[in-house]
Amino acid sequence: MLEIKGLDSGYGDVGILHNISLSVSDTEMVAVLGSNGVGKSTLMKTISGLLRCTAGSVTLAGKDITGLPPEQIVEAGLVQVPEGRHLFNGMSVLENLLIGNTAKHARPRQKELMEHIFELFPVLAERQAQAAGTLSGGEQQMVAIGRALMAAPKLLMLDEPSLGLAPALTHQVFAALRELNKQPLAILVVEQNVSLALATCDRGYVIEDGEITLSDDAAALRQDDRVRKAYLGM
Amino acid sequence: MMKNYIPILGFLLGGAVISTLADRYWLDILIFALWYAYLCTTWNIIGGIAGQFTFAHPIYVAVGGYTSTLLFNHLGLSPWIGMFAGMAFAVLLAVIVGWINYSRRLPHLTYALITLAMTFVGVIILRSSQFLGGSEGVFILRGNDPANFKFFDKHVYFWIILVAVCLVLTFVTWLSKSQMGLKLVALRDNEDAAKMLGISQLKAVLVASGISAGLGAFAGTFYAQYLFVIDPSVAGSHLAVEIILFTAIGGMGTVWGPVFGPLALVILSRYLNAEFIDFKGLGQVVYGFLIIIVLVFLKDGVVSWAGKSILRQRTKSKNARKTQ
Q: Percent of chain A beyond pLDDT 70?
């Protein structure tokens, strides 16, 4: 589904990512792991078109999306849930969801997509009319995910979905992602909570200083000494 | 949903009643206050709702006024029709400027500065062109000719601009609840998140600025037909500053702020100048202080402040009822 080859990116002249290559197949849920400031969010922004890469290529479902503006990348089927949720707080839950319904192929399916989201997160159906800013953190994350799903993505990317959530809610969010993944929906998730990510995802990539230093099946990574020491505190 | 439009009807009827009571002096003040309200409401579409600061509104006003006036003077085309040509030119100009800035993904600041520079260039072009009448501007022969947008009775101008304000208000009320309006607000409040969802900033700016400019151009035709002259002063950046200031006082991004702000301030400034006629400039000083006080203490403008206060009162009385 997603194929990244030799990607370099950064801000202005400051290079942050070097020679990143990774892939996500149609049915996979893949994690990008690493501590703060190693370039995970830069990678997300580059893939979704907010930042332009300086080298390399990004291919989605066989289509080259390198250097396209963000709206065309969404149109191609790749939608990102931003870090820290970034809901439009003054708007209602329903309006937040409607605003995500931008892609041409998703617009005629608005009703069906909405029903599907309410099935996945029943609490959102109850809170449709409520202002998004007044929801709890977990509910806000559900709106952020729902909003992205309204564009009927082929690949969903999430940047730190556990950020600022209580452990129970984090588990709930990841359970929902797993559920989505079964549909199938390809998922790429950036996560600091390494143990949770490795428990949920199929495969993982570890980024250090803007480079991928390790990649393997989740089970193998859980057993890897370097991962255990650096991220799992064992 | 219909209840959002009732205040507009009330405004229209209230205005009509006031017009029958006002004398010529006040009628003139009210016409200008409504003209500013029209400018602020149209500017608010791109400046307030979409959050793209632009100083180019006076340019669109000038484009509208000069186009309809020149078409009338040279080709005898009625300004009722010529105004649409002016509006079309303004849309074209706004789309070009928006495209120059946002197709290159330049920041908001360059957009603001480019539009500011446009007002400087615009005034100089208008002043130096013989065809455009130089500093004097272009005159229209006075007369009473309804088919050509000329009236002796000031009431007619009052009604025209009142209806224009109400029509734009109706549009803005609809827009602020539409999918397009939501997209504009999303881009304003959180640009990155909006882009990640596939909202095209370029498209949104082009649509919002085009509509704003096109509607704004009508204010130029109205100005020319009311004063029987259009001159370079309407294109100046000082008008842009007034529009932005009035809108900020009333409440940027709200539906009614851009109407309330200019009505209150134009009337207040005329009143203060008349009151302090013996102390030249004192009226302006009081006026300036009032503006600063409102901006400092009400921050988002009078209308947003009033809206929040009403909401607070409601939740208070709700809670009080619950505890009883």
A: 100
pLDDT number for residue A234: 65
**Whole-number Å distance between alpha carbons of A49 and B323:** 52
Query: For residue B262, is the peptide bond before it cis, meaning its omega torsion is within 30 degrees of 0?
Result: no
Give the lowest-confidence range in A17-21, A116-120, A169-173, A224-228: A224-228
Element (H, E) at A32: strand A29-33
Q: Which CATH architecture has domain A2-85+155-231?
A: 3-Layer(aba) Sandwich (3.40)
| Contact indicator for B220, B11 with CB cutoff of 8 Å | no
Across the interface, whether the CB atoms of A98 and B182 are under 8 A apart is answered: yes
B200 chain-A contacts, CB cut-off 8 A: 69, 71
What is the spatial distance between Cα A183 and Cα B313, in angstroms, rounded to a whole number? 47
- Read out DSSP for A61-123? TTEE-TT--HHHHHHHTEEEE-TT----TTSBHHHHHHHTTTSTTTGGGHHHHHHHHHHH-HH
Looking at the partner chain, which of A89, A90, A103 has a beta carbon nearest the beta carbon of B198?
A103
CA angle A199, A204, A206 (to 5 degrees): 120
Map out the domains of chain B as residue ranges.
2-235
Say whether residue B1 is in contact with chain A using an 8 A CB cutoff. Answer: no
Residue A194 identity (one-letter amino acid): V
Return the residue in A71, A92, A110, A156 with the most chain B beta carbons within 10 A, the one to mutate for interface testing. A71
The whole-chain average pLDDT of chain B stands at 90
CB B55 within 8 A of CB B123: no
Share of chain B above pLDDT 70, in %: 97
Please tell me what DSSP assigns to residue A205.
E
pLDDT at B284 > cutoff 90: no
Q: Between these two residues, B310 and A65, which has the higher pLDDT value?
A: A65
Chosen from A48, A88, A97 to mutate, greatest number of chain B CBs within 10 A: A88
Is residue B184 within 8 A of residue B208, CB to CB? The reply is yes
Residue A29 in tokens: 């849920």
Minimal Cα distance from A158: which residue of B?
B196
The minimum CA-CA distance between B23 and chain A, rounded to whole Å, is 44
Among candidates A145, A9, A46, A170, which has minimal Cα distance to A86? A145
- Ordered strands of the A155-159 beta sheet: A78-81, A155-159, A186-191, A29-33, A203-208, A211-217
Contact A99 B186 (CB under 8 A): yes
Q: Which of B191, B197, B200, B206 to mutate to test the interface with A (most CBs of A within 10 A)?
A: B197
Angle at B219 between CA B82 and CA B248, to 5 degrees: 155
* Per-residue pLDDT tens digits for A36-62: 888 888 899 999 998 888 899 999 999
Give per-residue pLDDT as tens, A66-94: 989 899 999 999 999 988 778 888 889 99
pLDDT in tens, A114-142: 999 999 999 999 998 999 888 888 889 99
Residue B297 has pLDDT above 80, yes or no: yes
The percent of residues above 90 in pLDDT, for chain A, comes to 45
Residue type, A117: I
Distance (Å, whole) CA A206 – CA B79: 68
